[in-house]
Specification:
Layout (H helix, E strand, L loop, with lengths): L18 E4 L16 E9 L5 E9 L2 H11 L3 E3 L1 E2 L5 E2 L1 E9 L4
């Protein structure tokens, strides 16, 4: 007989999500100003137990220079780390979308 396995969404390892402390916005790439392009970047990243952004993975990007701008901004982001039920700081994975429009 055939069996089917259904994946369940993973439960987060935290009960308190990371809290943003510093989140400078990505800058519109100067090299694209003459083209006035709009774009979107979606990234997944980890906030470690020290509140630092690690393991940035670009899931989708409409232009490499937009992705580069997001990487540069994320390097400056800081969080109060996620917390487990015990109160212990734990790493957490987040997904974030960034929209770019000329003049932003």
């Amino acid at each position: 007989p055939s069996r089917s396995v259904q994946a369940r969404p993973a439960r987060p390892a935290f009960v308190e999500a990371p809290r943003p402390l510093l989140r400078p916005a990505p800058r519109y790439p100067g090299a694209l100003e003459g083209e006035a392009l709009s774009g979107r970047v979606v990234v997944r990243f980890e906030v470690d137990v020290d509140g630092q952004v690690q393991a940035v993975e670009v899931r989708r990007s409409s232009h490499k220079l937009f992705a580069d701008a997001v990487h540069a901004a994320l390097a400056q982001w800081r969080f109060a780390p996620a917390r487990a039920a015990s109160g212990e700081a734990v790493p957490a994975q987040l997904v974030q979308a960034f929209d770019f429009r000329m003049g932003d």
